[in-house]
C-alpha cells in the first residue's frame, strides 16, 4: 500500500541505466513493479523522472503550508510515516505523483526517447470547415495513462479481507486516477499558421500536454475540496456524509478517509516535523503568515545581511561589471 514509485523518483539509481541489479536496490517497489523495471528499464527511468516531477510540484504547491511536503530520501517511503494515514495530503501525493508519471512518459514518447511509443498518429486528417487540420506531433497521452496505470496501480491491486485496508486501497487507486485525469482533461490544441505573408490561411494543429505547474495548481484546488469517505469499503468508495452517500464520486474529486492533523508540533511517531524554525511572513494573513504557520506560538526575528550583485553594466565587448550591494532584512522564524 506504500507509494514505491516515489522512491524511484529520489533513488540514487535514477540517473543510471536500470538493470536487474539496480532495480532490486530501489526501495518500496512491489514484485510486479520490479519485474517491469527489469523488462522495461528505460521506461522505469522515465517513470522515475515523473515521480520527481510530482515530488517537486508537491513541494512547490505546499511550500508555505504547515505541511510542506517534506521528503525522507533514505526511507522506504520517501514521505515517511505520514503516508500510512489516509489524509488529504496523502491523497495529493498519490494524485500528483501519478500525474507526473503520465506527463513524463508522454513527453518522452513525443521526443522519441522511448522505443515503444511515438506521437499520437490518430490526430491527423484533412482540412476541416474551420480551416485547420490535425497534424504535427500530438502528445500520445493515452500511452502515458496506460504506463501510469500499469506501474502505479499494481501496488494497491491486491484484494484484502480487512475492510479498512480495502478502503485505503480504493482511496489510493481513485486518487491515482484523479492525477491522471488532471493531465488528460487539460490537453489542448497548439496550432501553427500557414499562408502568404503570415496570413494564416490554414492552420495545422496538434494536441499538447499542459504545463505541469498548471496540473499542480489544479490538483491543489481539488485537495482543498477533498471528499471524506467511509473508512470501510468493499467494492466502491462511499461518501461519509449520509445525505450524499448515493452521489457517485467523480475523478475531479480527491478523496480521503482520515482527518488531517494540524501539523503544528513535531510528532516523530506519526512522521510530522512540525513548524518550529520555519520562516514565516509577518505581514501575511495567508497560510505563510506567522500567526497561522506558527500556530499561535509566536516567532523569533533575526536581522540578516545579504550581499548581492547590483547596478550591472554591459561593456562592449564582452564584459559585465557589477557593484556589490548590501541589504538588511528581518527574517521571522516560528518558535
Could you explain the architecture of this structure?
- With 335 residues, this protein is α/β, with parallel strands linked by helices.
- The protein has two domains: 4-120 and 138-187 and 210-274, no CATH class; 299-334, Endo-n-acetylneuraminidase fold, CATH 3.30.2460.20.
- The protein has helices at 4-10, 20-25, 31-39, 41-61, 88-111, 141-152, 163-184, 212-224, 290-293; strands spanning 132-134, 188-194, 202-208, 227-228, 255-256, 279-280, 299-315, 319-334.
- The strands form three sheets. A three-stranded mixed β-sheet has the order 1-3-2, with no helix packed on it. Strands 6-8-7 form a three-stranded antiparallel β-sheet, with no helix packed on it. A two-stranded parallel sheet has the order 4-5.
- β2 and β3 form a beta hairpin.
- α4 (41-61) packs across α8 (212-224).
- The chain is globular and about 65 Å long.
- The relative contact order is 0.12.
- Keywords: Developmental protein, Disulfide bond, Extracellular matrix, Lipoprotein, Secreted, Wnt signaling pathway.
Largest sheet: 3 strands, mixed
**Average pLDDT taken over every residue:** 85
Q: Report helical residue fraction.
A: 25-40%
Element-by-element helix/strand order = HHHHHEHHEEHEEEHEE
Beta-strand proportion = 15-25%
Tally of alpha and pi helices? 9
What's the shape? globular
Sheet with most strands: strand arrangement: 1-3-2
First-residue to last-residue Cα separation: 36 Å
- Total beta strand runs: 8
Unreliable segments (pLDDT under 50, ≥5 consecutive)?
Answer: 12-16
State the domain count.
2
- What would you call the quaternary organization? single chain
Structural class category = alpha/beta
Radius of gyration: 24 Å
Pfam families: wnt (PF00110)
GO molecular function, one term: cytokine activity
InterPro entries: Wnt, Wnt_C, Wnt_CS
Protein name: Protein Wnt
